[in-house]
Amino acid sequence: MEKSQTIGAGNDRPASELEKDIESKPTTTRAEYIDDPDDGLSEEERAKIDRKLLWRLDLMLIPWLCLLYLASFLDRTNIGNAKLDGLEKDLHMSGQQYNLTLTIFFISYSVFEPLTNVLLKKLRPSVFLPIIMFLWGICMITMGLVHNFSGLMAARWFLGLTEAGLFPGIGYYLSCWYKRSEFGVRMAIFFSAAALAGSFGGLLAAAIGEMDGIGGKPGWAWIFIIEGLATIVIGALSFWMVHDFPDEAKFLSDADKKRVLRRLAADKQSSAEHEEFKMAYFWASVKDWKTYTGAMIYMGADMPLYAFSLFTPTIIEELVRYSSIKAQLLSVPPYAAAAIVTISIGLIADRTRQRGLCNICISIVGIVGFAMLLGAETAGTRYAGVFLGAMGIYPCISNTIAWASNNTEGVYKRGVTIGMIIGWGNLNGVVSSNIYRNQDSPRFYPGHGVVMGYLVVFLFGGSILQEILLRIENRKRRRGDRDHWIEGLAPHEIELLGDKRPDFIYTL
Description:
Low-confidence stretches: 1-30
Number of strands: 0
Helix content: over 70%
CATH class: Mainly Alpha
Mean pLDDT: 83
Number of helices: 20
Order of helices and strands: HHHHHHHHHHHHHHHHHHHH
Keywords: Membrane, Transmembrane, Transmembrane helix, Transport
Protein name: Major facilitator superfamily (MFS) profile domain-containing protein
Largest sheet: none
Strand content: under 5%
CATH topology: Growth Hormone, Chain: A
Structural class: mainly alpha
Subcellular location: Membrane
Domain Major facilitator superfamily (MFS) profile: 61-508
Membrane topology: Multi-pass membrane protein
Distance between the termini: 30 Å
Number of domains: 1
Shape: globular
């Protein structure tokens, strides 16, 4: 039995007494110790209070988290915009050296990601997230001050290290606030900031690039410096704008804290409870087959995402033979379309509870898009392929994370699982940074071909595989084939099994 500081918000008794009560009453579940502040109200009154609470959570959590991820994605991909403004020429870099600066980011980024959710839980979101933002803002500024390839490599390594905690951290953090049927669209809205970053990044780079020569710095250096300073400012404000987990969030009253915890408990989640970290949670994630199918699906979306984000300005420049500024601007519409589709798929997946089917269908759009980039002869058709590629990649990122989160229960197990899935996906960014080579322009056959292979085999194929396996497991649980897992266990012990409970039905 886990020893927690408090069980549910607003309880005055210490955790040890509550644990003894639960153990002395084996028919009592942990959720029954969370007081009901709406006891005696009608279902209609409860529903009205719940809608107001959900709206309040959305306003207090989602907008600022979207801003954080917009800054994060902008800072990791703006090197593609800087390349168009003369980065390679000024630093006397070859095309291969440029690709190495992209590769080194993904190595440090992916290696440290699985560890970050443990730090997030221990340090609290309101401390951990602002600290890493401040640090990666400094890394961004140094990227604008380097004078050679070695300096840029060092800056990109530390940028990957300091950014590693944001995306898996916020994915895990949001899953501790919302029911499974509500999480997908919030994750989609949050991740749409990545698409907006691609859109906004082109506009911003085009404007900052006009600062060329100011202070003796080229335009590409100002892209890094200005955006790094903005990140530091956002990080400083985040000490007040980022909130802690539901049982500690200062913007909630005691009654609202209980409501959040009760609605999570009703959804068979214990995500907001205090747990002391144990290696058992890590090994539970490692031994779970869903961790590996989730990683397979995520790599099928994540590698194409980074390839697309890092090289879209270059692809469009070669495609239409425009100036770098016009290429930056032409990269905006595909990202805007991707943001709209991402949110739409989030809504559809939440309402239908068919995340796998959504992944399968939308991945086909991306496959068609890259087939057009590979085979089409006209610039207009290939530009349309860029649109379909964006629309087929971006929605699958947030939907895959929501799918993995929905099917993993337990505070630390979920955090470790999400970190492992995202970390493995981002490690494949090493591939994305080396498949678009200068000598392959303007058609970039090797790059487009590898991306399409990832989409077909890992995203499309992996989604089908996980869908089939989850259906088989759900049938076994409904038939009672897994009931022997809980023989002789008390209700509170069954709760601790998380997604291994026989009554836990997986989201398809």
